[in-house]
Amino acid sequence: MRLKADLLITHAKLATLAGGTGPRRGLAMRQVGFIDKGVVALAAGKIVFAGTETDLQSAELEVQTVWDAGGRLVTPGLIDAHTHLVHAGSREKELSLKLQGVPYLDILSQGGGILSTVRATQSATEPQLTAQALVSLRHMLEHGTTTVEAKSGYGLNRTTELKQLRVTQALNGLQPVELVSTFLGPHALPPEYRDRSHQFIDEMITLADEVWSLGLAEFADIFCERGVFSVAESRRYLTACRNLGYGLKLHADEIDALGGTELAAELQALTVDHVVAASLDGLRAAAAAGVIAVLLPGTSWNLSGSYAKARFLMDVADGAVALATDYNPGSCPSESLQLIMAFAANGLHMTPEEILTAVTRNAAYAVGRGEKIGRLEAGWQADLCVWETPELAFLPYHFGVNHIHRVYKRGVLVVADGHLISGLHNPESVLPSHLDSSQRSV
Ligand code: NIG
Ligand code: FE
Questions:
Q1: 272: domain CATH number?
Q2: Residue 431 pLDDT more than 70?
Q3: Please, which of 121, 132, 405, 413 could form a disulfide with 154 given CB 3.0 to 4.6 Å?
Q4: Is the Cβ atom of 299 under 6 angstroms away from ligand 1?
Q5: Does residue 44 belong to any structural domain of this protein?
Q6: Which residue among 152, 187, 234 has the greatest number of ligand 1 atoms within 8 angstroms of its CB, and so is best to mutate?
Q7: How far, CA to CA in Å, does 276 sit from each of 107, 252, 374?
Q8: Ligand 1 pocket test, candidate residues 114, 182, 273, 275, most atoms within 8 A of CB
């Protein structure tokens, strides 16, 4: 074997997630492909070799740089398969309502919650939205997230939805994290459409058509929930989006068992997200239809303390599970997938191996990129996390701090010693002038 590489990482403990096709289901989610004395070679942004030191010894090597990982754990870059990244403002004022026991859906029906972020996002400029998202993306990257799915849905009208989606598209070129865009036009019913939800869905289908022709999103999503959009409305919207070419996602059965999980199975959606209240039949049907369940334990921890039935999904239904932050200013104001990994252990009773699979290989399939990212395997993109520890279980066990040592994105070192390499990510250039200097030092 002849190997030409820009970088050779040696003395690493690899979790490769390599081999086979498709997301890992059920018990197979525990196969992370550990290699104790591992090496990874990168060239032109891709992995050209990931395997044992012994296998490499037989190769004829032409390597520019060698870096000794000191026995640390090396995994694929983390993939956050469900976020509401681009939005304006925050909702810390709702914390006291939550602590008084006011339910999430009641805050929404009183015009707060999602609708308050909608008002803030409608009045924000593109540079303001960009500046706020750049701060979040920096946190994400420093915590090991190299690809992020980002939903619209704080517009609820044409102008603001397009504004959010344009910002998402532009962010791809402003910093290293790769963004995957989802159109979530029907995220809430604007108050002026009360009793006219049929008309709102019609308008969102028209907008989905425009968004698709502008190339601004590749997935379509809807909030299928009691008091938001019904199963029938979700079916109509998602079927129209599928006919336009979109891949399908659903916020389903997050709070009430409405039947969105069954709908995801019927439509063979790519993912069904939340599923906290889903029926066992719904979970079984979704798993059997090959729908990936994207579980969001940060939202459970923050809102209700009720968690999705992850063990049923994996042990009984033989389903594929991915994990994501759901990062948004209401139900989960945290960008850290590492924190979500801890919640997945305690709240979803997932093992460290299942958790890693759910934030790498399975999350890659959940964003339609399973054949490109999510593994350490020759031919896959060189997105890598080097962790401070050699022990995978240390990550969900020791929670609330950052365990990243290095991050590589497309073969480029972007985080070293846990910090972003300066010059790669420059919010200064887009920060609105009214922000003071403390907010500028991001
Ligand atoms: O996934 N449930 C609907 N949407 C988001 C929350 C959005 C918000 O509260 O602003 C979620 O939890
Ligand atoms: Fe969400």
A1: 3.20.20.140
A2: no
A3: 121
A4: yes
A5: yes
A6: 187
A7: 19, 8, 25
A8: 114
For residues 337-351, average pLDDT: 98
Q: Which pLDDT tens digit goes with each residue over 50-87?
A: 999 998 887 888 999 999 999 999 999 999 999 999 99
In sequence order, the β-bridge partners of residue 182 are 151, 219
Per-residue pLDDT band at 2 (split at 50, 70, 90): confident
Q: Do strands 145-151 and 404-409 pair parallel, antiparallel, or not at all (unpaired)?
A: unpaired
Report which bound ligand comes closest to the CA of 182: 2
> How many domains does the chain fold into?
2
**Ligand 1 pocket, 91 CB below 6 A?**
no
Q: Is 261 in the pocket of ligand 1 (CB under 6 A)?
A: no
Provide CB contacts within 8 A for 87, sequence distance 6+.
117, 120, 121, 129, 132, 154, 164, 328, 329
For the stretch 96-122, pLDDT in tens is 999 999 999 999 898 899 999 999 999
Residue reference for tokens 């015009």: 111
**Ligand 1 lined by 403 (C-beta under 6 Å):** no
3-class DSSP assignment, residue 44: coil
Residue range(s) defining the domain that contains residue 98:
78-366
**CB within 5 A of ion ligand 2: which residues?**
326
31-44 burial: b if 16+ Cβ within 10 Å, else e = bbbebeebbbbbbe
Residues 26 and 128 in one domain: no
Strand positions, DSSP E, 327-403: 384-387
